[in-house]
């Protein structure tokens, strides 16, 4: 079973809260039954709850549509349902996903992603009809070609446009902390994004090309166990006549084939489909170009898209959904950049961000769940090297025009590269504008930044090949492990500021130690260690072990060892973080409860928008302070989610060394 | 007192065997001596003393021999030929008599080197004290003397001498009260009491290295020196950059050209507009920040030890490479340094002044003392949490 499909009670509770928050009580009730009892079929579900069959079916429909549960209708006569923990947990990061898509591909794409997240999956044509109601197929399309920023298009049919608009905004707003509030606030009927159907298709294609959006496949609804069975049956049928071979070597081969089969099926989902580009401009095939360029070039008539359910081309009929693996990849980029910023400063982190974004589209996922060859705990052979992703200094240089690349470096290095002298206080006698520098000098400056990255103990980048400084590699696996370690250390040092961090690091470096040895390594009296070890052992970050020296197990005649296991600490911290998130959600509920009366009043249709007129002074105060509190708690929730991503999503199980 | 100085001088040099002839001998000799225990030293000289007739003349001869020996550098080992070369005694028998006499008074210490007897001078005051010892104490003293600065465990002494425990304790106490031996705690085995001669400084093995004092780490000294080392390494690997070190005024030419072009063409498009100005972080005028040097010489334990010994902070003690390595490794564990390579170190920079750890511990739950007791409902829950209340500045539910 996959490593990421572990379920813990804390996670179950957390996910139930999330489902309730987003999909309402009925879905949450059904969900919680599944969370408590595990894999169930409909009859079992009915028996396990007070709900009737109809209600449960309704709940299940919601859950299935949003991919929160797996079902086995493809492989078994009686459909069994099982929770998809990963997807359920992902509910908490919807906002973050929309934000990172917006950062990368602009608002057009983020609007689509927001819709897909809300609906689970949809056919391209349906999504298009929702965003561009077929009654008014972009009527005044013609003038769009020339004016980019100047005039804005007015929609004739206000109600329809607003209907769709509101929906999209609803998600995006909630998610991005009101980044779009301003636009909506003005009440203008025209929107800033997805102005044309063409833009819509462009965005979809871009998202599919980069792997963010993938096809929906029946196999995706299979739980890891079912998926395993299906793949195994396929493999056995093809090569071993449906029989499991008996030899050890053959079994190994089956295992290998099985992994490959699983990979192949999965990879096929994310394969961007080749559409016939009948109604699209040939120029728009290259996605590196900005949308603007396409628009200027393109003045072409758009055939009115067919209404109803019968879409005339394959493209519109294709159901799509968000690719969760890609979300983790984007989050990893963000987290690594944050880490680099903490360690090396903003400018260097910016360079790193450029490097990471450069290869992001090539990286399908953070770690391979079914590696080739399959991991064997017994064999001493090191696992195969992960795929290498290379960035060249040249690629980086192209994207550094808009900030000061001299910052964050040793002034002496800058002075050497630019040939300008420094005064005694390390200030440039003749200040240098990075925009005026020649290309070679800019290369050198960027190289200096990359050098900082590569010298850091995190080894953010590794030199790969090329004379001088041309190609750099990012070893994600190694970095992810160090990152996990770093977060564990952060947690421990917050809890035990004095010796916690030291102890964890000492144990990690030296392995099992007794108190005296630990004291020697940490250079503190052995007696001081005891308290720290006790607390950390209770919290589950270090383990203790007693090895008797004589036959009688006496404390006096035993060796007491302290040790640290990264994987255990990681799981413990992950579990604690889930629990912390539950508490935050509960606290939000509690805080809301306190201002319930005011909230209800504020949400009345007549009060809405006229709060200052209808609400009293103290009611307004309460409302504002509630908003502050909620924002604070939600922010913390999203930061805890970042931690979960670091601990869980960037690296598979840690085989401790 | 004199002895004490010698030993100090010898201590560091003893590790390099064969540097100096005399030292070389001393080294070998120690080892061999440990194997050959001195036979009952008290019995023979008495017999010899009886044989010597003229007491007064000999007594002055004793002093003569002792004084002559004392003129040579302290710690010298005398062989028979060296003593006869002093020309105090006329015949070999007389010389032997003199030597035995001095041994009996504990003024000479008999040793064996390559199965050849040799002697070392003892301080008069020490000899005085030794003469007051009972035979039992004397045996113990010799055993302790043999162990030199490695020290000997009280239980090992008992095994060697076969004394009863009360006798042993009594004798050791008396030796300690006479200021001849000292007892210290072993670092390796904290429960063991190790005995060694008073004037010796205990070896690293039992007293711990530079950083330990009486078996415990000298925290004050470690703090002091690690701070000094941190500063030194920061100096070596980082550079403090003033704000606005590169306070350039952006040339407006490119922007002006673009602007003009746009104006003339009447074109309004973002791509043809002025190129985006490089973004500069707003900086505070007087603030400085640390960045890593571009071509640093990364310090290693060896260079840092040399630096520390050069600064004369240690007051006579010497930091060896291993001591320094221990300190630096500890600082890496601390998070003050980080490894630049397998053997070299550099400062660990934390760019952000504000200490943000991670989402979990920055929330009240991360450091909550009752986190494990917290439940969905009950006395400790999110509703009643005082820490949340404090953090958010809101009221929590009261529990009575």
TrEMBL record, chain A:
Biological processes annotated in GO: DNA-templated transcription
Domain of life: Eukaryota
Pfam families hit by this protein: HTH_9, RNA_pol_Rpc82, WHD_POLR3C
Domain RNA polymerase III Rpc82 C -terminal: 207-480
Annotated DNA-directed RNA polymerase III subunit RPC3 winged-helix domain residues: 488-561
Stretches with biased composition (Pro residues): 372-387
Key word Transmembrane helix present: no
Keywords, sorted A to Z: DNA-directed RNA polymerase, Nucleus, Transcription
This protein's GO CC annotations: RNA polymerase III complex
Domain RNA polymerase III subunit RPC82-related helix-turn-helix stretches: 13-71
InterPro entries assigned: POLR3C_WHD (IPR055207), RNA_pol_III_RPC82-rel_HTH (IPR013197), RNA_pol_III_Rpc82_C (IPR008806), RPC3 (IPR039748), WH-like_DNA-bd_sf (IPR036388)
Chain positions covered by the region annotation Disordered: 133-169, 366-387
Gene3D superfamilies attached to this UniProt entry: Winged helix-like DNA-binding domain superfamily/Winged helix DNA-binding domain (1.10.10.10)
GO MF assignments: single-stranded DNA binding
Protein localization: Nucleus
Main location: nucleus
Free-text function comment from the UniProt entry: DNA-dependent RNA polymerase catalyzes the transcription of DNA into RNA using the four ribonucleoside triphosphates as substrates. Specific core component of RNA polymerase III which synthesizes small RNAs, such as 5S rRNA and tRNAs.
UniProt family annotation: Belongs to the RNA polymerase beta chain family.
Assembly mode: Component of the RNA polymerase III (Pol III) complex consisting of 17 subunits.
Designated name of the protein: DNA-directed RNA polymerase III subunit RPC3
Lineage: Eukaryota, Fungi, Dikarya, Ascomycota, Pezizomycotina
UniProtKB/TrEMBL annotation, chain B:
GO cellular component terms attached to this protein's record: cytoplasm; nucleoplasm; RNA polymerase III complex
Annotated keywords: DNA-directed RNA polymerase, Nucleus, Transcription
Family annotation (Pfam families): RNA_pol_Rpc34
Localization per Swiss-Prot or TrEMBL: Nucleus
UniProt family annotation: Belongs to the eukaryotic RPC34/RPC39 RNA polymerase subunit family.
Job description of the protein: DNA-dependent RNA polymerase catalyzes the transcription of DNA into RNA using the four ribonucleoside triphosphates as substrates. Specific peripheric component of RNA polymerase III which synthesizes small RNAs, such as 5S rRNA and tRNAs.
Protein name, UniProt field: DNA-directed RNA polymerase III subunit RPC6
Organism of provenance: Periconia digitata
